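User: Structure please.
Assistant: Input sequence and predicted structure:
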Amino acid sequence: MTATATASETTFVRSRTTLLGYALMAYFGFALSLLGPAMPFIAERVGLTYPEMGYHFTLLAVGNLVSSLIGDRVARRIGSGNLAWIGVLLIALTFIGVVFGTSLLMTLTFTFLYGVGIGILALLSIEAIADAKPQFATKAYTEANIGGGAAMIVGPILIGLIAKTSLGWQASAFMPLIALIPVLAIFRGLPLPSHRQPATSSATPAAKEPPLPLMYWIFGVLMILAVAIEWLITSWGPSFLTNVVGYLPSTSALLVSVYALAIVLGRLVGRRLLDLMSEQRLMVASLVWILFSFPLYWLGTVPELNVLGLFLIGLGVGNLAPLSMSGAMAAASQSRKRASARFGIFPSIANVSMLQIVGVLADRFGILNAYSLFIVVVVVAIAMALGTNRMRAARASA
């Protein structure tokens, strides 16, 4: 083995495809961060109840789910590059419809299409990041999620700042379109993974990937819980800060960026902690941290305590999605294309179910009481993570 070959095995080289995955994840994170801070404004203008607000988050997730289920098939027909253009244009144009929609039907329809566009980018970004060598998968997913988390900080800040200007909050409708300009520059010359199948002769049939293993689906369930934990705060946090804590909607939108900043910091710290502990232990430690931080945000008696709790939760949340994603991809190392194409299903399931459930509970019992579901989800996630660790240990000793 040559020195060059040895170095390639021990050094993480970020290919152009990997960098594209990072860029797509950043735009994905930015787009995903906009609906929650905008929702109190939309609810006030259109006159939405808590369940109707929840319908928007549900349809956003349904759009993601549709992309996860059929996106890879569409990519085989029209090419990944063309599908990427469809995704970014859907995001850029339909958010305008979400903000300026004059009825519940209009805002729901545009939200669904917005979710389809976001789901397309999620699918293609995971596919591109999966191009990294297996031994560097955790680092690649962590770095991509750090970039995505950093982009998530920008959206709430911009909405809050724009809402305080003479332009009014509706000017934020054009942010995804403006953000598309640097994305176009990033796309230029960067190759997307090809979904098109090469022609094969009857003498050399295409090899089929093995089915996805059980451990992949177990990590998928963990991803469902991780996303539910993250987005129960992201989506309903602005409404909680406005209606319970007492902040103005524009201030609540700005404060969501505190949570997004904490997520990024948590991922940076988590990356260092992986040098001291295993991925499994970091997952459990992060969940326990969230469990003990949540009461400060939920039951804080002064607004500053609620915001401090919000920040502490974000520190723990930052590691959940990257660890779940890398664990699933490592388990499905022999079926990585199929695994990356299917992985988007899990976040969608979380958002379809949990966000709507909280909306219904909030309408009946108030958002303060509805948030008790958060504790249940965290406790179940801790049990799942501990069970996964035991399964891995048993397999290693067998």
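Confidence is low (pLDDT under 50) at residues 1-8, 196-206.
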